[in-house]
Description:
Elements: H1 4-12, E1 17-20, H2 36-61, E2 67-72, H3 85-104, E3 110-117, H4 124-127, H5 137-143, H6 148-160, E4 165-168, H7 170-181, H8 183-194
Parallel strand pairs: 1-2, 2-3, 3-4
Amino acid sequence: MDNLPEQIIEIHGGVDAIINNAGIVQPFVKVNDLDLAAIERLCHVNFFGALYMIKAFLPHLLKRPAAHIVNVASMGGFIPIPGQSIYGATKAAIKLLTEGLNSELADTNVDVSIVFPGAIRTNIMSNSGLEMPKADAEQEKKFNPMDPGKAADMIIDGMEKKEERIFVGKDSRMLNLLYRLSPGFASHLVAKKMKSLLP
Length: 199
C-alpha cells in the first residue's frame, strides 16, 4: 500500500481523490455465534483497508490544489442491524474516522465526505463469500435495492457539491431521520423487520 501512490502518480501524474468503497458483510448471525476469524476479516477489510489507503495517499493529497477523500460507510454505521453487529461496528468506525478527518483537514485543500448507502444492488453477500439468507419475494420487493450506477452518480454529485454527509437512497435518508428523532424506536423497528433473516 505504501508504494501504491508513487506507482499511480508515475503513470497518471497525480491523484486528486480517493474513494474507499471496499467492504464485506458478515454472515447473518449474532455476535455470540460469529467466530473471531470472521470478525478480524471484517475489521481488516472494512476499517483498516480504508485507513491504510488514507495514510498512504493523504500526504500527496495535501499537496494538490484541491483534493477529496470519500469513505463509504453504511446505514449499519448509524443504526444497529441484528445479525450484522460487527459489520455495523466497522462502518461506525469509518463514520467517526471520517468525521475526525473532516475536523483535522478543515483548513486544508482536502475535502472529506462520508457516504451512507441504503440497499444497493451490489451482490455484497456473494461478494463477501456468503449465501443470501432466504427471503420471500415480498421481502425482496420491500428492500428494492438501487442500481449501483445511480448510487455512484449520487456519490460523485455529492463530492462535487462538497457534501460532508451523502445519503444514498430513500431508505438511508428515512432511517437517518427516524434514528435522529427516536434512536430506540428506529432500532426496534429495524430489529423487527430483520428478525426473519436471523437463524
